[in-house]
Amino acid sequence: MRDFIFDLYNTLIDIETDEHCEAAWAPVVEYFAGRGITADWRRLCYEYDKCTARFGENAKSGVFAYPECDCVEQFMRIASSVGGNITTADAEEALRLMRRGSVKRMRLFEGTEKLLADLRGGGAGLFLLSNAQSAFTCGEIEQFGLKNMFDGILLSSDCGCRKPDTAFFGMLFDKFGIDKGGAVMIGDDLTSDGKGAADFGIAFIHTDGGAAAHADEILKAAIYD
Question: What is the mean pLDDT of residues 35-43?
């Protein structure tokens, strides 16, 4: 059986978010106010975008082709930019609050659990490689009952790089001893998932509309000589 490397968002979990709206930042405004930090939601959103842009500029000279930031650190900088000082734990909670407020839709694609169970029942290795922030993604993985479905999970915020960086793929394969010859990347994004897989030298199945919608193709690819 092959080893399958799954993307998470819009592959297994159907999601739509908006990080540039009042609903996303109002909970952070209230949370910061409880810690003596005063700022309206537009200012916090502006500082968030500024931190992201600054990270992108600074990361150009880094070691990774596709660097990834840790948004917990970004939230600590956001608090500092509006005259506050928060702990790492405070920043993690503020980030989770923003995430929950930003979500417009989040659910498992229908058939996801069955697909993963069928692959696992057939002896396939299942791994998760996601461009995601561990501060909230770990909780969402558990929320949808996916944690125990995988033999290994790697998130970009923990690694300093993201798909399609071959370094990110290499970290997963080295950590869990995955054989490239029998591995297949499953994902919805032709750049981060498709290009990343091609550059790393593994097979790829494009699953626009969710992996479960392509279950027949994936299950057919599970067995090979």
Answer: 96
What are the backbone angles phi and psi of residue 196, rounded to the nearest 5°?
A: -60, -45
Q: What is the pLDDT of residue 225?
A: 45
Give tens-digit pLDDT for 84-110. Answer: 999 999 999 999 999 999 999 999 999
| pLDDT digit string, tens, across residues 144-172 | 999 999 999 999 999 999 999 999 999 99
